[in-house]
Amino acid sequence: MTDITFIGHPFAPIGMGEQLRSHVAASLAVGLRPKVYDIYRYAQRNDESYRSLIDPLEVEAVGGGLRVFHVNADEVDEVLATFAARGNDIAAGTNVIVPAWELPAYPKPWAAKIARFHGVWALSHFITDALRAVGIESRYVGQSVEQHAGPLLPRRLYGIRESAFVLLHFFDLSSYASRKNPEAVLALFERLRAADPFADIQLVLKVKNVESGAQDWAREAGIPQTPQIRVIATPFDALGVRGLIAACDVFVSLHRAEGFGRGLGEAMALGRLALGTGWSGNTDFMTPENSLFVRHKLARVKEGAYPHGKGQSWAEADIAHAAELLAPVLADPARGRAIAERGRLDVMTKLSHRAVGLRIAAALAELG
Fold this sequence. Notes:
It is built from 13 helices and 14 strands. The protein has two domains: 4-144 and 352-367, Rossmann fold, CATH 3.40.50; 155-350, Glycogen Phosphorylase B (Rossmann fold). By secondary structure, it is an alpha/beta fold.
């Protein structure tokens, strides 16, 4: 069987790190024995869940076989230079890249960098289509959202009311927050509060990169100082993130675009209700039957709103429709739990470690 080495940022608490770790876990689930190579070695190694997965597989040099690079195209030049400077031979094996992207067409200036690899794996069918739009063919593999079994932290550790119906939203201030569209989530919450001022509901906003000004953003967004809205800027390890998702009733993403939609997928895997814009990468696993699938209209990406966004479109979620979808769930939480259970079964069928691992194994077999 062909050797496989995953190359990228295995200890980094970022999307590229998550997708690499998901492919490692998926490979192990089907009996593969992958290796892992940390290209920069810059990330702290203080998350035990990352270390327990990666440490036994990490190598100091990369041999032949299949090398799977979990990096974006704008990293390619530096990554390949670092790879060579550390004594590795790029020509000694078969090289595949797994890029992330969030708009309908992949950036043309990056296409030539992608073409340097023998193949491309796509995390979603949306990314497959985006790559095809600039002439790049890829193989759909997906990524696993299966969660590590283990204890979960209680609500009180996050400052969340035990009695409340909790809406949770994640976004990153350092990564074009307009794509995640937190303002729409705030507008949804205000609409719900206006419809029933005495409802016991709470909005939790998990903000990444507090150094980028989480409190400044909260002031500028006009978020009131109220127990009904909890802004969390504290960095969490994997256990903390998993516990926070499990502490919510519904994970909300009124995004304008998602390459994959990992937060929604993880919430569904944990048996939590997902409410999301019905467009882009998350449509691989979200449907009107297994989640709250929000209507949208496509709009042009405004100048400067996202890299390589000129001439492209993304979604504007229908906030009124999102409120309509949530209303019966607020009235009857058991209804939401039933939808969430359908969602959990669906994502564990399509995006479990085993399901993704079988697609990776098939890709390996095709390579011989």
